[in-house]
Amino acid sequence: MKITVNDKNIRIFAGATVKDALRRYFAKTDPAKAEETTVMDQYGHELDADAPLHEGMTITFKTEEQS
Predict the structure, then answer these.
(1) Best CA proximity match to 24, nearest among 54, 45, 4, 50
(2) Phi, psi at residue 29, to the nearest 5°?
(3) For residue 22, how many other CB atoms are within 10 A of its CB?
(4) What residues contact residue 37 under an 8 Å CB cut-off, 6+ apart?
(5) Which of 6, 13, 17, 62 is the most exposed place for a label (fewest CB within 10 A)?
(6) pLDDT in tens for each of the 67 residues of the chain?
């Protein structure tokens, strides 16, 4: 399934959660950052790390250091 994370398109498995998407996003840079983020959906609602993702969804985040 395809989703957008901070304007970057990524592919992730069906049934993935917010935490899975962040791990994928940070896999090559700093995986520890996936644990210290606040995530919002395209409507500005804060998402829990265990929230399910759906095809075409857009999420954005800020790390603790960006807050």
Answers:
(1) 4
(2) -105, -70
(3) 22
(4) 22, 61, 62, 63, 64
(5) 13
(6) 999 999 999 999 999 999 999 989 888 777 666 667 889 999 999 999 999 999 999 999 876 655 5
- Name the DSSP letter for residue 44: S
Chain length of the chain: 67
**Could you identify the residue written with the tokens 């919002």?**
40
CA trace torsion 45, 6, 63, 46 (10° rounding): 10
Tokens 């954005």 -> residue: 60
Are 63 and 25 a contacting pair, CB within 8 Å? no
CB count within 10 Å of CB 61 equals 20
C-alpha 32, offset from chain centre: 13
